[in-house]
Here is the input.
Amino acid sequence: MSKFSSHYSRESGKIPAPPSERPARPAPVPAGVEYHRVLASKKHRIGRGIFAIVLLLAGAVVFINVIARGAAVIDLQMGNTTPILGGTDYTPLYHASTMFALAVLIPWSMVIQRWLYGVPGPSLHSVVSRFRFDVFGWALLLFSPVWIVVNLLPFFTPGEQGSWSQTDLIGIFIGTLLLTPLQAAGEEYGVRGLVFRVAGSWAHGSRAGLVIGVLVSSVVFTAIHGSTDPYINVWYFVLAAGLALITWRSGGIEIAVVLHAVLNTVVLIGAALLRVDLGTALQDRSAGVGSPYQLVPTLTVVVITAVVWWRTRRTGPALTPAPRSDARL
Here is the structure.
């Protein structure tokens, strides 16, 4: 990390600032480090990291409750009681509100990183502190076809159907196309972005930090989905670990966003087209719900991770660029 003097001056240049005071401007992103090591310093700062994770999860709970409950008031006026109020009516408005609530994790993750670590929020995008649309597009073209097929196959088995009106189906379809990619991105910025980086800074070495970062972020991701089914938990953990490794090798969140967004969008659109009872399907993750087929997308994630690793075998994991002043020397 960049070193700051413990006795820097305020803008006036006359009053020395307390050593514990954080700089008014964001600290520069350290040069030549991997994605998960951007927040690393001489101190482990484990307590601060745990606080950051708690803030992230608390934010998700608050956003969902505030936004979904606000939407539920409107649904009540139309005679619908949504799951957030203990009902069973999975409406297009409820669907959109929960998607949007999780999308808010994108700016919230950046705020937490800036506040607790002094590092600019946009650095969560990638090692170059911007969203690399070329990487995003490459991943979309390369991985989407097989990923779509793998996640559509379960719909060929019988499932519980709900009583959907044509209007509701159209609403779910539009809400999914517009907001589900953002919802998936919100989870990625929160878990593969902030949590991966926070936990990755808890060790002095890069490899030890990688192991801790992958394990912690994967456990958090698996736990927040609240399943008691072994097949589903293995699926969530392997998906999370694979996306974390992909983020490390590629140096950014883009490929993880593609895979997560395509997964959620395909599953939700497929469910809507087949009139699957979304309320039951999304909330029931109890033991016995999963099946051996869950191992198919699990193994697919392993293969995709291996492909990304192979493509970066010569360059290694992407690193943050050197400062401009150093680049000129």
User: Anything to note?
Assistant: Confidence is low (pLDDT under 50) at residues 1-23. The chain has eleven helices and no strands. The first helix runs from residue 46 to 77. The two ends are 21 Å apart (CA to CA).
